[in-house]
Please model this.
Amino acid sequence: MVATLLRLKLTLLRNGLRRSPWQIVAFVLGVLYALFLVATVGAGLVALRFAALDVAGPVVVGTGTLAVLGWALIPLVAFGVDETVDPSRFATFAVPRTQLVPGLLLAGLVGLPGAVTLLLSLAGAAALSRSAAATAVAVVAAVVGTLTAVAASRATTTAAAALLRARRTRDVAVLVGGVLIVLLAPGVNLLAQRVEDGLGDLAALGRDAAAVAGWTPPGFAWAAAADAAAGRWGTALLRLALALLVLAAVLGVWALALGRSGTGPAAGGGSGSTRTATRGGGLLDRLPDTPAGAVARRCLLYWRRDPRYLVSAASVAVVPLLLLVLPLSAGDDSGRWFLAAGPLVAFVTGWSLHDDVAYDHSAFTLHVTAGVRGRDDRAGRVLAAALWQVPLVLVATVAGALVAGRGDLLPALAGASAALLGAGYGVSSVASALAPYPVAPPGGNPFSSPRGAATATLLAQLVTTLAVTALALPALAALLVALLWAPWAGWIGLLVGAGLGVLWVWLGLTRGGALLDRRAPEVLAVAARS
Amino acid sequence: MDDQGETVQHQTQPPAGPPAPALALRGLTKRFGDKLAVDALDLDVPAGSFFGVVGPNGAGKTTTLSMATGLLRPDAGRAFVLGADLWADPIAGKRRLGVLPDGVRLFDRLTGLELVRYSGLLRGVPRDVVEQRAPELLDALGLADAAGTLVVDYSAGMTKKVALACALVHAPRLLVLDEPFEAVDPVSGATIRSLLTSYVAGGGTVVLSSHVMDLVERMCDHVAVISAGRVLATGDLDTVRGGGTLEERFVDLVGGGRDLTGSLDWLR
Model:
């Protein structure tokens, strides 16, 4: 079974490369980057072999712990987990989970991130190879640590998806995730602050931190290797045993989560109360009965009912929290950071629509067969988003200016927000018709990205981000002038920003609409892929 | 839009009009990489006919119907829907066309009623007309009890039926159905069949694809046999099957019927 899954993964990787030359380009770039990482970081770790043990030990324990945490947490926020070998495809094959999980684990190791982690872990083991026995322990610990990292990434994303799929717990899970992300930031900041306190302190702090990390689940394996190198065999074996227990526990959580979500058919939604009021309340009924109005009504319902939209909306709510927590944890006067709240929320919300058609997946077929005009499609999506985002941006802008005690900057800030939001809607309306990229299908894991889409995703996100910023530049410049020299320039900024916002939306609807009219079948083909 | 006008026009139309094709395909071609999926395909579907498209798996049925309904851009060729060139003027062509695609998702975070209503409004049908038709359609298809349930929680058969309701809510004059009976239980199948039969009796045209010969033979009055992206035979049912059953004629045309005596002994 394990061998079969490994072969499947390799075959899928090879076939993925065969699909287009760009896949090969992306792969080669990835390999070069991986080689660079292994060469620099790996060389550094191996060089530690000749450093004192009280330097090498904490460094290996620290980086190892961070690596495991990174595997476990980063896919929840960015990139998603590589679902080349998707567990839900095995639902019909009656593979016992005891065989499926080890197979999927090793398959997850195959690929660039897994290879880099394994190589760096072994480099860390080399740093601690102070005796033959210690080397043996270090190598075992490196393998256990790497496997724990890979398993943790699968366990957290599968568990999060399972939680999200059960409709009742979904909102809570999103909220908890958001809070966790916010709490991560001050931790990093506290560390950064200590760095400024002096290098001597830093070494001591690093040693303390490593000592603590060595007694946490992601750190056991690496600390065991350090213990062995120092000749503390009792602690070494104890921690190695604990590390194995952690690996088993992580695998157990993963298997459990797979049972709840992964091995079920992907399209099946959670059970529970699904009867829904067919009328969505006052706002929904007041939308016009035109095609554009119908699209807006449908999108509004989706903002409420589709976990993928909820995750996207929750990320907006995190922005003001970040602005509150980040400066506070840095011991900084947080006041002036709040000025950025409005423009930041405007940027994130407007830009978040840039791949909206792909979120429809093949359901977009209905828009194509119904012959919905591109302009109506664009307008409906923007209208639905604007109905809740414009008030949000307004509140964030006003509140930000008042909390920061700079009411005089309100016109400039409002101008910047309007320009950013309008540019976001405009760019999104064009981009989702011009360069859609595949995303997780409805009911799928919102933390995964379809295979082979990474390059297109990165490129589209980069270009749209730059475009939104560039289009809002005049209003941003006015904001800068008002902030640094002359507050009255804000009034010009307000006029320019509002004008630009309206102009970009209008251009986006007409240009994007015309593009969609021309390219609807091609857009559908991308949206339906996953 | 002018949906109402068309309904009226249809009712005054004589049942046996001149044979202007409801759907005409001319030289449709589609290539996927090295594989020629549809090869300069010509097909005429007479107005008012119940037309079955049959063919083995991978024959190009879905590809052909996708190109005929505006979902997939052909490499070459044209598709005329009720006289309108679909790829030259997609919006005019699609207005009188109802499509049930196979294997695509629906907006399944909507309830059944919301989805049918959405489908109507997207096509510019006035709100009051949609409000009247949507519950009526769901009722006729046996989905009245599930009208307030999210489509994501529907069974495969219910999903097929609600998709059919979406294809009908704007009262199209041509209905193109890709595998409408796949994953549908016999009771739902009978419901769909009687609905389609009465639709054709009212002057509408149905094109459906299937690989269940028996079903096509019972329902359709015209058939086309497609294999390897080409039409092997087309015409009214009796002409195509020429005395035998449709299945015999089909295996005859497509070939590949294999005599299995002597092989696969280990299966017995």
